[in-house]
């Protein structure tokens, strides 16, 4: 099945996802221009991102159900249509309300893309290739952030707001044309989504949720990805500049380092997952543990964190994105193909719900400390950030407990099918005796 046709279909899907990431991140890189255009301060501007993320996260499960029913081709082209309309709206918007409506449309279209594109992998490629190809899908999509930061920003400076956003709308129109012309849901002779068993929406959703493997994916995605999202999308920049006192160019350099590490880490993680499918959750727990340790060090160090320590934190946070792809691998391996979109949607809501919840809690804790006079250094002082950002450790702990609980259930079910996951100490002992021999 791994013909040139499969690679073409996958390549188009990945292109559509990359463009969705450009649309998603484009507004964030033109903060200064947006402040001027909408006469809005930081809080109001952050509403653009929050609203977009809320729309994205709340649509994941409906989109999953729809992609199982209508297939990738329709969903990705409808998504690109919403994103084109959203960017068109932003291109001409001059008030906060009209701008936010544009970002909502972009969030809707973006929500329809990733889950739909990921569905192509197991349909067009043999199972053994799926972990690496899923990782590559996620990884190549992240290049969209660089497209926003470099060519889009340059275009904005050269041609101005309206032209730059019209160009982004045109990019999504290109996606619609290419997808409708060349993307097919399944190879000839393989049943497309609509041809699967005809379960009702409620049954599909209930069956995907009842499957403990789906919930293992959800909690993996929830636990390992959110801290990186919170850092990259909301609080990383203010923490480094206002809290730690770094200059803006150092903070921007660390943000680019974040994207670079996320790009490099994808393929080795994909290979690990393909080789050690019984150790997927262990990798999630290991990266979550590293994240907790790195945050603890940065938050506890008296007098602020040196740049090298912040770089270690950023590298660890960047691993969370690729590692969260393990969540989708759980969805794929524990669900039948006709329920895959729904299960993937459930998993993908995890990290984004956790990120939104944590972003809100951090903002709330900063405000409360300020209002109670507990942060004499100012709203964004290092001391205030130490307390507020520590809330992430609680969210991580909650996610880890939920993950461990559902993993026990998954392992019981596997044992009933005669698949036993040997304890790590046994694997380690075997490895050592093998080496001695
Ligand atoms: N885990 C991310 C994607 C990713 C892959 N490598 C780094 N990040 C994810 O959940 N993506 C969903 C989306 O819509 O982008």
TrEMBL record:
UniProt keywords, alphabetically: Lysosome, Membrane, Transmembrane, Transmembrane helix, Transport
Lipid bilayer topology: Multi-pass membrane protein
Compartments it resides in: Cell membrane; Lysosome membrane
Record field: catalytic activity: L-alanyl-L-lysine(out) = L-alanyl-L-lysine(in); L-lysyl-L-lysine(out) = L-lysyl-L-lysine(in); L-histidyl-glycine(out) = L-histidyl-glycine(in); L-lysyl-L-alanine(out) = L-lysyl-L-alanine(in)
Parts of the chain that traverse the membrane: 7-24, 44-67, 74-92, 104-125, 137-158, 164-183, 218-237, 249-270, 282-301, 307-328, 340-365, 385-406
Gene3D superfamilies: MFS general substrate transporter like domains
Binding partners and assembly: Homodimer. Interacts with lysosomal protein GLMP (via lumenal domain); the interaction starts while both proteins are still in the endoplasmic reticulum and is required for stabilization of MFSD1 in lysosomes but has no direct effect on its targeting to lysosomes or transporter activity.
Listed name of the protein: Lysosomal dipeptide transporter MFSD1
Organism: Sinomonas flava
């Amino acid at each position: 099945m791994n013909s040139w046709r499969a690679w073409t279909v996958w390549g188009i899907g990945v292109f559509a996802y990359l463009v969705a990431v450009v649309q998603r991140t484009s507004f964030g890189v033109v903060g200064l221009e947006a402040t001027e255009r909408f006469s809005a301060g930081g809080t109001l501007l952050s509403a653009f991102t929050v609203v977009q993320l809320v729309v994205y996260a709340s649509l994941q499960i409906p989109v999953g159900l729809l992609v199982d029913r209508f297939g990738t081709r329709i969903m990705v082209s409808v998504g690109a249509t919403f994103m084109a309309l959203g960017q068109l709206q932003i291109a001409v918007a001059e008030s906060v309300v009209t701008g936010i409506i544009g970002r909502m449309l972009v969030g809707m279209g973006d929500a329809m893309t990733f889950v739909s594109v990921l569905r192509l992998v197991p349909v067009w490629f043999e199972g053994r290739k799926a972990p690496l190809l899923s990782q590559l899908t996620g990884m190549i999509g992240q290049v969209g952030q660089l497209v926003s930061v470099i060519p889009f920003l340059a275009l904005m400076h050269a041609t101005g707001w309206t032209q730059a956003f019209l160009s982004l709308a045109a990019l999504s129109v290109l996606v619609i044309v290419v997808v409708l012309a060349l993307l097919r849901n399944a190879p000839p002779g393989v049943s497309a989504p609509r041809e699967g068993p005809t379960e009702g929406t409620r049954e599909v959703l209930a069956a995907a949720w009842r499957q403990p493997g789906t919930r293992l994916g959800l909690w993996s995605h929830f636990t390992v990805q959110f801290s990186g999202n919170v850092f990259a999308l909301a609080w990383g920049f203010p923490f480094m500049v206002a809290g730690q006192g770094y200059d803006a160019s150092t903070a921007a350099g660390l943000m680019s380092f974040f994207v670079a590490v996320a790009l490099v880490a994808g393929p080795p993680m994909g290979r690990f997952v393909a080789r050690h499918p019984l150790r997927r959750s262990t990798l999630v727990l290991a990266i979550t543990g590293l994240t907790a340790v790195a945050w603890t060090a940065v938050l506890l160090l008296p007098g602020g964190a040196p740049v090298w320590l912040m770089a270690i934190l950023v590298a660890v946070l960047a691993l969370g994105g690729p590692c969260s792809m393990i969540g989708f691998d759980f969805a794929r391996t524990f669900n039948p193909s006709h329920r895959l979109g729904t299960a993937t949607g459930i998993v993908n809501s995890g990290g984004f719900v956790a990120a939104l919840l944590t972003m809100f809690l951090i903002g709330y804790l900063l405000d409360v400390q300020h209002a109670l006079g507990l942060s004499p250094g100012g709203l964004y002082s290092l001391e205030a950030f130490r307390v507020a950002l520590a809330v992430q450790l609680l969210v991580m702990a909650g996610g880890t407990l939920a993950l461990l609980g559902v993993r026990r259930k998954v392992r019981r079910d596997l044992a009933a099918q005669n698949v036993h996951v040997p304890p790590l100490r046994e694997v380690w002992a075997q490895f050592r005796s093998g080496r001695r021999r």
